[in-house]
Each structure stands twice: as C-alpha cells, then as structure tokens.
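User: Second chain of the day. Same drill as before.
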Amino acid sequence: MKRDTWVSRSTFILAAIGSAVGLGNAWRFPGLAAKHGGGAFLVVYLVAMLALGIPLLMAEIAIGRHTKKAASGAMRVINKKSEFIGWMSVGNGFFIEIYYAAVFAWVILMFALSWKFAGLTGNTEAASSLWAETIKTTGTTSGYTTISVPVLICLILAWGAAYWCIRNGTTSVGKVVKYTVTLPIICLLVLAIKGFTMPGAAAGLAKLFIPDWSALSDSSLWVDAIGQVFYSLSVAMAIMVAYGSFLKKDSNIAADAMIIAFSDMLVSVLAGIVMFTTMAGVGMLDNMSASGIATAFIIYPQAIVSLTNIPWINAAFAFVFYFCLITLAIDSLFSIVEGVSAAISDKFGFNKKKVTRAICIFDFVVSLVFVTGAGLAVLDIVDNFINSYSLVLTGVLESIVLGWFFKTNKILDQINRNTKKFRMPKGWLNISLKFICPVILSGLFIWNIVSLIQSGGIYGAADGYSLKANIAYGWVIIGLICCFGGIIKVVEIIRVKKGASPEADLTWDDCDKLEVEESEEA
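Assistant: Same format as last time:
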C-alpha cells in the first residue's frame, strides 16, 4: 500500500505548527507566565525548548521519515523490544483526543453564545457563570444523569469536523491547515491591536515581558515551563512521528523543526500579549489563572463584558476570541486522531480512512461522559493523570531508547540529511537524548508522584473528586496506556492464528535499502 505524502514542504510545516499550536498556547501559557514572574517564565521556557523540546521533536520527525511508519512501527524498527513505547504514545493520543474533543465542544458552544455577551455588558457575575450553567456541571464527580443538550450538539460538530479534516489523509489535511493555522494568527493580531489601545496595556506588557528574577528560585516555575514545552510541541503523542512518516526523502528536518518550534513559541507569546493587555485594560490583570479552562470560560468572559459600554462591540470581541480558539483547537484534535489512526492502519494493514472513521465514532461514544454534569471533573482528572504521568513517562522511555539503545548518529544523519545552512550539532542531540531529556523528565515524573502523595493520593480531593473517580479516570486509564502495546500484541496473535500475515520485522538498514529500491523504481 502506497503511503500518503505531503504535497509540499509548506503543507507539512503548517500541519505540524497546527498540531503544536493549540488551546494550551492561547490560555495555559499566558496563565503560567502570569503565575511565574512574566519574563522569567519566558526565559526558562526558551531554555527548556532548546534543551529538551527541539531535540525530541527533530528525533521523532526523523525516525518517522526514515521508517515510513507511525510511532509504534518506528519504535519497532529502532528496537523490536521498544515497540510498546510507541504504543504508549499512541495510547496517550487516544485518550487525549477523547477529552480534547470535549474542550473543543465547549469552545464551539461559547462561540455560539457570543451574542449573549451583548446583553451581559457590565454584568461580570452573569458572564462568569454563563458557561458553567450551560454545560450543567456539578463541579464534582457526580451528576452523570444530567445531560447538556447544547454540549451534545457541539460535541457532534467537533467530531464531525475532525473526521472531515482528515478523511482523505494528507490531501484533506493540506487543504484545511492553510486556513486553520493562519486564521488564529490573524485573530490574535486583531485582538492584540485592540489590547494595545486599551488603558493599562503598558502595565500588562510589562508584567508579561519584564522578568521577576526572584521567581527562578521557585522549583514549580521550572516544572511548569518544562511541562508546557513538552506538551505544547506534541511530542510523545504519536503525532510528529506520523507526520514525519508522510515526508518525502528530500525534506529538511533540521530547518523545518526549528520553524515549527519557534512558531509555536511566537504564537504563545502573541496570545500572552492579547491576554495581558486585555486583562490589564479591564483592571483584571491579577485575575489570570494557570488553569486554561478557568481563564477561557470563566475569567475571560468577565473581561469581555467589561471591555466597553457598547454591547455589540463586546459581543464582536467574544465572537473573534472564540472563533480564534476554534481554529486553534481543530487542527490539534485532528492531528492527534491522525497519529492514532496511522499507527493502527500501519500495524494491521487496514484501510486508513475506515480506521479514522471508526476511531472518531468510537471516541465520540466514549466522550459522551463529558456532556454530563460530572463531565468537567472527569476531564480534569483524565487530563491531570495523562499529562502528569503517562505522557512524561513515555518521554523518559523514548529518550532512553533513542539515546542509549540506538546510535544517535543515525538519527542525526537523518536530521541533517538535506540541510544547507542550519545543521543540528552532534553534541546538542546527544546530550539532550542521553542526559537532559531522561534526567529532567524523570525529575518531572517524580515531582508529580510526590505531589500526588502529598495530596493524600487523591487528585482534586478539595474539589470533591472521589477516590473511585480517581481510580476509574486516572489510574485505570494510565494502566491501559501502559498496556496498550500488550493489548495490540494479543490482537495481532489472534489475527495471525486466523490466517493474517504478521508484521514484517524491519531494521534501520532495511529502511535504507527500501528507500534505494523506491528511488530506482521512480
């Protein structure tokens, strides 16, 4: 079966930027910057991106391009015993896409409700409760029988949009990303211009860019900055390996990865400018929260209704803001689905379009839990456990295998294969994969475990989250992710017994030979 390829270099870059640039850039990044001394957080974020994020990003794209396989298959080529790590990343993506679709549905909902902000001018209390009342959340892990019909409708739209964008693989993705990547940047620029004109904008910019160096002594700053880099660049989620597998052999990974990473950071900073100037302009600069959900759906609506005394202007601002979030969310969601779909279709030789459709339908059914009154709490638990444990653990194992059980020179050769100006230094990649990534991510993993133990072993206990919910939506899901490779292996054994052909064992050098043969045929 002939593999999809990106129609152009720009299509791949836009698709990868679209995956990396998501809702976290728009709301979590500004919140963390506000929490950790503004410019001090930006400095640590940049250091973490250079030391950890970019090398992992380049490595994932490189092994994807060379092996022409998704995450699980690529890790199998690296080392047959490490295939389970690839399936862990696929498992991360599988569960992330389920709850990410729910957040996307909430964004669609607020976009549809933008007109209501006209009637709420000056009423910050009503604005802050609009979202919570519409989704009918209990705020706890109870209320499964309460259903929000508007959220259900928006969830259907979210999954329908995701499938429509990737129904034809790289072809349909290429047609979509040129809009879904450029439109949010345009929207953010419009909102930034508005922010610059607001009273107090200078104070907002000062808080964002002037470092509070004393914040560097706070260990949570380093944890949050490293975590934001790791999550934002979409590594360990099976996405970038899959996207890399669709690249042509003449692609310039070294340059493209730098463009992707710094574009991701620049959009984050632009979103920070919007948030800080707007919140300063309405006198709410100290109200920003590191919680993206709280910022986007509770705090920012208060700012919107306080912008002006002219109702239609406030409603228009809400319309642009939530439209921006929609365009940020859509390509992140479909890129995660693509990573999962590519891995499964590669493994079993299934028709990729049918696999994608089946995944979207199955995930939609599972994500129905988020239209209930308990949906917000369930999402918070799942998001915390995946981001704090399985995603970080996957990164630790991936970097150890690539750095210690494989020759990094082979990966470096792929990264620098077609570069003319910028080349990834050997020392940069080696030190990062062998030492920085394993050590830093292991430290982050241990930090998160200790934090959970200190909280009594129950995440969100103070918010009314039950132990049963923590087990069901936390530890069980983490267990499934860690066992994802074993589950796939059992399925493969059953299929082979029924007459299906087992997956061929390929080595890194075999991929070299296959590439030569394809070149000769061409």
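The mean pLDDT is 93.

User: Great, on to the next one.
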